[in-house]
Amino acid sequence: MNSTRKRRIALSVLGVAMLAGSSPAFALSAETDGARASTKKTEGYKYIRVYDTKGDSNSVYGLYHRQASPSTERALHNKSGSGTHATSGTGSKILDQKACVSLDFRPDRCSGKVSNP
């Protein structure tokens, strides 16, 4: 095996080891057709963002609970249209979230609930 090939293999192994050892800064999202509600680990799950992901005339909203008042369901509405998002104010940790689309004359379409660790 020549030295160039050995070097490539060593760098590949090192790269994989670095990726495996890093802790990802990920977000937890609840999604349905047209809406996404998301929180981020890097922000301590203290903010929720509600994205309108579909070019239709329906507004979207997120439903969530905070650690300081776990029995109170809160809502964050985004009525700004496709490609936009609304962000909540800060507070205690968000325990769970789900995304919903407001549908006229029909029940709203909501995702399942996603719980934060």
Helicity, as a percent range: 10-25%
Strand-pairing-aware structural class: alpha+beta
CATH topology term? Immunoglobulin-like
Q: Helix and strand string, N-terminal first? A: HEEEEEEEEE
| Whole-angstrom Rg | 20 Å
Largest sheet descriptor: 5 strands, antiparallel
Structural domain tally: 1
Inertia-based shape? globular
CATH class: Mainly Beta
Strand content range: 35-45%
| The CATH architecture | Sandwich
Q: Quote the average pLDDT.
A: 86
| Count of helical regions | 1
- Number-wise, the strands total 9
Unreliable runs, pLDDT <50, ≥5 residues?
Answer: 10-24
Euclidean distance between termini CA atoms: 47 Å
Structure, described:
By secondary structure, this protein is of the alpha+beta class. It has a single domain (25-115), classed as Immunoglobulin-like, CATH 2.60.40. 16% of the residues lie in helices and 41% in strands. The protein contains 1 helix and 9 strands. The strands form 2 sheets. Strands 4, 5, 7, 8 and 9 form a 5-stranded antiparallel beta sheet that branches. The longest helix is centred in the N-terminal third of the chain and has 19 residues, at 3-21. The radius of gyration is 20 Å and the shape is globular. Residues 80-91 have a biased composition (Low complexity). This is Tat pathway signal sequence domain protein.
Brief description of this entry?
With 117 residues, this protein is of the alpha+beta class.
Provide key terms for this protein.
1 helix; 117 residues; 9 strands; alpha+beta; signal; 16% helix; Tat pathway signal sequence domain protein; five-stranded antiparallel beta sheet; Immunoglobulin-like
